[in-house]
């Protein structure tokens, strides 16, 4: 029973764009917070962005502000991450996750996780 399924990762040149999608089950999508995290080799999993379903409020890590945009399609139980002006340091496995309404930018606050999708940005 898959709760979250990410897609859209791939190989892109620096300066390029990718759009990640995360399709959630109805039960998982009912969580108030949907977020994106990423993990590069040898690094801890880090917060990228989140959206509050009930209000549409968004938050971004400083490293991606102005370049990434999180959005959702409620009817399709889907969350997106539009990534523009990609840099080599954006290379990582990207995960979508769901959490209760009090979750912020800490991975331990999230209850459900997808399997991840690889994003590789070449120089």
Q: Explain this structure to me?
A:
3% of the residues lie in helices and 51% in strands. It is built from one helix and eleven strands. The chain has one helix at residues 26-29, and strands at 4-7, 10-13, 18-24, 33-39, 46-52, 57-60, 68-73, 78-83, 92-99, 110-113, 117-122. The strands form two sheets. Strands 2, 4, 5, 6, 9, 10 and 11 form a seven-stranded mixed sheet that branches. It has a four-stranded antiparallel sheet with strand order 1-3-8-7. It is globular. The mean pLDDT is 92.
In DSSP terms (H or I, runs of 4 or more residues), the helix count works out at 1
Q: Mean pLDDT across all residues, rounded?
A: 92
Compute the gyration radius: what is it? 13 Å
Beta-strand content estimate: over 45%
Give the biggest sheet.
Answer: 7 strands, mixed
Structural class category: mainly beta
Order of helices and strands: EEEHEEEEEEEE
- The total of beta strands comes to 11
What percent of the residues sit in helical stretches (DSSP H or I)? under 10%
What spatial form do the alpha-carbon principal axes imply? globular
Distance between the termini: 38 Å
**Low-confidence spans:** none
Short description:
The chain is about 5% helix and about 50% strand.
Protein traits:
mainly beta, 11 strands, 3% helix
Which helices and strands appear, and what pairs or packs with what?
Layout: E1 4-7, E2 10-13, E3 18-24, H1 26-29, E4 33-39, E5 46-52, E6 57-60, E7 68-73, E8 78-83, E9 92-99, E10 110-113, E11 117-122
Parallel strand pairs: 2-11
Antiparallel strand pairs: 1-3, 3-8, 4-5, 4-9, 5-6, 7-8, 9-10, 9-11
């Amino acid at each position: 029973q898959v709760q979250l399924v990410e897609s859209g990762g791939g190989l892109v040149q620096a300066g390029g764009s990718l759009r990640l999608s995360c399709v959630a089950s109805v039960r998982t999508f009912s969580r108030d917070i949907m977020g994106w995290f990423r993990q590069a080799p040898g690094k801890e999993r880090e917060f990228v962005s989140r959206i509050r379903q009930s209000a549409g409020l968004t938050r971004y890590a400083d490293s991606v502000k102005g370049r990434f945009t999180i959005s959702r399609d409620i009817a399709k139980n889907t969350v997106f991450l539009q990534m523009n002006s990609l840099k080599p340091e954006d290379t990582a496995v990207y995960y979508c996750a769901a959490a209760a309404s009090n979750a912020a930018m800490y991975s331990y606050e999230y209850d459900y996780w997808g399997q991840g999708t690889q994003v590789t940005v070449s120089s």
